[in-house]
Q: What sequence folds into this?
């Protein structure tokens, strides 16, 4: 039978009763099938994340630590590290003439079809700005057609410090927006600009970073559920493709370097399948909890995960619980489980009508006979709170899936301006699958100028750290 469904697709945020993916995913989860969905590629705009139902694992995109790096060495000896996908076989390492056609007309800046016809680019390295309506390697065709020897493609402003790769049809590098501005300034400073492109390998110690394209929260449909849930590899991923992207017609090696949450989603789906094979008795919510509560919140340098478009620490609305760590997810210690019927009080709490709710759960429900709950009361592995002057208390139930005899104490990183208390201070288990309920109270401790703050609650034993992110929006 089916254990995991991976959906690299999403519509604009819709109420769950109008969202066919949300309804279909609920049916799948009710039948024990884990559902992983892409968060979308509308980042870094706030509230751009889609597939926000709590029974779905919503996946954002991150970079990896592997890269193929070239150095673009300008004639003034300034050198910039950029990523490439063209192997530079038999390509000269000598300085070549460098040209930015955008100085002539705006369409030439993007190297649009026909825009290079009256510009001397033959044998030169051509600097082109990215046009969001064209694929990057499509731009290269027009440069190659005009006689260009190579291309430097400048990312748009949101990708200021990042380059997103695809396969190439001529020697080409892609640079972030800030680097592109520096290269254009150099071209304007001399009558004979030149550049040499040199290949080398490298890795990124700042990885993982949140991809600029990765959609962000808050969750527009259900603000009390933090989305996205998790991030995973979604930039410069070697993916199967229906046709060759390198103008090679007689080949079976049809692959593409692709980016987006459509790439990160299958990574998480695969991890979920591995967890299901190791723990066949775990529910979809248990698997989701294991993935979220063991996620990494620091990069390879041990520093907070950053956005790759501004190099600043990423908020929870970008990373969710953090970056997936498959090995730790296999042994989470504790899990927050949710059964399909547990979502009904939550849906009633969204003030859906009985008919709207029945569209989702596919059976008769009368909310008047159900004790509805607030969004934050759902037994979710994260917290998303809208906090005013009154304290708010919520309950969570955790199940022991680690050592039979184990004890956990809580550790709190409180959001700025918020006081958090947890009862009890310590929880103990004497057997596997034993459940314990705790309460957590949020109180505004001081006025802050910020509209948002974040923190963490962790349950810590000698073997495990079970971490839940806390996002607080102030009223």
A:
């Amino acid at each position: 039978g089916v254990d995991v469904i991976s959906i690299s697709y999403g519509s604009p945020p819709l109420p769950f009763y109008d969202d066919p993916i949300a309804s279909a995913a609920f049916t799948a989860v009710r039948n024990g099938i884990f559902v992983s969905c892409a968060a979308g590629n509308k980042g870094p705009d706030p509230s751009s994340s889609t597939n926000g139902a709590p029974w779905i694992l919503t996946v954002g995109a991150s970079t990896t630590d592997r890269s193929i790096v070239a150095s673009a060495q300008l004639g003034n000896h300034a050198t910039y590290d950029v990523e490439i996908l063209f192997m530079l076989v038999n390509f000269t390492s000598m300085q070549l003439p460098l040209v930015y056609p955008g100085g002539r007309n705006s369409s030439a800046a993007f190297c649009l079809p026909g825009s290079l016809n009256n510009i001397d680019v033959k044998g030169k390295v051509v600097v082109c700005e990215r046009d969001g309506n064209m694929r990057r390697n499509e731009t290269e065709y027009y440069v190659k057609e005009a006689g260009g020897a190579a291309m430097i493609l400048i990312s748009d402003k949101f990708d200021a410090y990042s380059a997103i790769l695809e396969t190439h049809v001529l020697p080409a590098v892609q640079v972030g927006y800030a680097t592109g501005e520096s290269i254009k300034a150099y071209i304007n400073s001399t009558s004979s600009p030149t550049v040499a492109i040199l290949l080398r390998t490298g890795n990124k110690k700042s990885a993982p970073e949140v991809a600029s394209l990765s959609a962000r929260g808050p969750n527009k449909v259900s603000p009390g559920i933090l989305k996205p849930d998790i991030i995973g590899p979604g930039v410069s991923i070697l993916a199967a493709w229906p046709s060759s992207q390198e103008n090679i017609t007689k080949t079976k090696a049809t692959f593409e370097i692709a980016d987006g949450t459509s790439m990160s989603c299958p990574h998480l789906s695969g991890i979920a399948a591995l967890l299901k094979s190791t723990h066949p008795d775990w529910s979809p919510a248990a698997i989701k909890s294991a993935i979220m509560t063991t996620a990494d919140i620091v990069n390879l340098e041990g520093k907070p995960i950053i956005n790759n478009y501004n190099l600043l620490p990423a908020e929870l609305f970008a990373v969710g619980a953090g970056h997936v760590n498959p090995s730790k997810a296999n042994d989470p210690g504790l899990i927050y489980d949710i059964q399909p019927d547990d979502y009904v009080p939550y849906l009633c709490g969204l003030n859906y009508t009985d008919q709207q709710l029945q569209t989702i759960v596919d059976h008769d429900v009368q909310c008047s006979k159900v004790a509805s709950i607030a969004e934050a009361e759902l037994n979710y592995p994260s917290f998303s709170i809208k906090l005013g002057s009154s304290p708010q208390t919520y309950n969570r139930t955790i199940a022991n899936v680690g050592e039979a005899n184990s004890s956990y104490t809580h550790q709190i990183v409180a959001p700025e301006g918020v006081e958090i208390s947890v009862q009890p201070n310590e929880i103990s288990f004497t057997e596997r699958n034993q459940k314990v309920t705790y309460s957590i109270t949020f109180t505004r401790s001081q006025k802050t100028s910020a509209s948002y703050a974040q923190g963490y609650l962790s349950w810590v034993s000698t073997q495990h750290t079970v971490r839940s992110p806390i996002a607080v929006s102030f009223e």
Remarks:
- The chain has three domains: 1-63+208-331, 66-203, 333-338+379-475.
- The domain at 333-338+379-475 is CATH 2.60.40.2310 (Immunoglobulin-like).
